[in-house]
Every structure is written in C-alpha cells, then in structure tokens.
Amino acid sequence: MKSFSKFFLFTVLFFSNQLITPAQESDSSNILRNYASFEVGGSGGAYSFNYGRILFKNNNWQMEANIGFSVMPVLLYDTYKFYPTIPFGVSVLFGSGHHRLKFGIQNTLYSGYVYVNPKQNEYRNGALVSKPEYKSKFHESILPVIGYQYQISKNYFANVVFTPLVYDNGFIFTPWGGIGFGVSF
User: How crowded is the C-beta side of 6, counted as CA atoms within 13 Å?
Assistant: First the structure.
C-alpha cells in the first residue's frame, strides 16, 4: 500500500504544473477552473472541506485533482483526541450540461491511535489506576470513486459518490459514500 501512495503522489505531482497553468480547453468558452466544496461522508470520513482544480476540459469530459482536510474527534477512555484527515485524488467526469458521471481514485491519509500495551483497565477500590498505552500513527485508505454530479448552475454543483474504503492494514473493504455541495470560481 505504501508503494501505491508513492506512485499516487508522484502522479499528482507530475500533473501539478497543470494546477499553476491555465486549464486546456477544446472550445473558447470561459470555464471556472477552481472549486471549493463541503462533503458529508465520502473520502474525508465524516466530513471534509475540499479544494479542486480542473486539469483538462473537453466537450464531453474533464479531469480534475482535489485535496481536502478535516479533523476527527476520537474518545480514548476519558480524553478526546483529535486527528487530521487529508483526502486527495484525481477524478474524471463524463458528460455535459447539468449531468455528469464521476470516476476516480482518492488516497486518504489519517492519523489514528495504536495500542502499545493493550492490557485491560485496572481498577482498585473503584478507581482507575492503569489503562492501556497508545500512540499516534499515520494510516492511509485507498478509495475508488464512482458517482454522479449535478451542475446546478455555472457556479454551483452537488454530487453523490460511492467511495468504498480499503485500508492499509490488510485488505479490509467497507462500503461508504458521501454527498457534497460546492462552488466554482
């Protein structure tokens, strides 16, 4: 899984010069290349704030790259810990007008907690005297993206995606999805 992350990061960086230069167009229309969106569920976990940019646009399809961020609270015994989630990926959208099909791949980096000493809690006279030790560790998930995007107007869009989770600690497949709303600029 780590080699996939390196390949994925290389691919995104290879196309990053497109993020600086104007998007290529097959027609002379003025397109809005950037977007910001909020997604519930999806590749960011419970939610994410995202930025994306169209890398290439043709009459019937477009390629885009995106990156997002969220902070997830986790209750570990009596303390809340917060960990960052960073989804990033590349998608291709097929269609024109208001309706588009979306296919892509996302890689989500997130911080989680691993138990160092997984012993049980120890109580004496009803008081907690020891608890398992844990440390923070970065993980990653690979998420294929299949979805539908509705272009509400030139500036606004909504989408629904199916993003099954595939974790780096062995092959664990979890069905997942999300719904998002965004603005182009």
Answer: 3
Q: Where are the domains of the chain?
A: 2-20+32-184
* Cβ atoms within 10 Å of 64's Cβ, excluding its own: 22
Structure tokens at 99: 């309706």
Token pair of 93, please? 């959208």
> Which residues are CB-contacts of 16 (< 8 A; sequence separation ≥ 6)?
65
Residue 85 tokens read as: 């989630």
Assign domain 2-20+32-184 to a CATH class: mainly beta
Residue range 114-126, pLDDT digits in tens: 666 655 666 667 6
DSSP state of 132: -
Instruction: Record the tokens describing residue 158, joined without a space.
Output: 């909504």
Return the structure tokens found at 54: 């169209």
The answer to whether the beta carbons of residues 89 and 107 sit under 8 Å apart is: yes
51-94 pLDDT, tens digit per residue, is 999 999 988 999 999 999 999 887 776 777 788 899 999 999 99
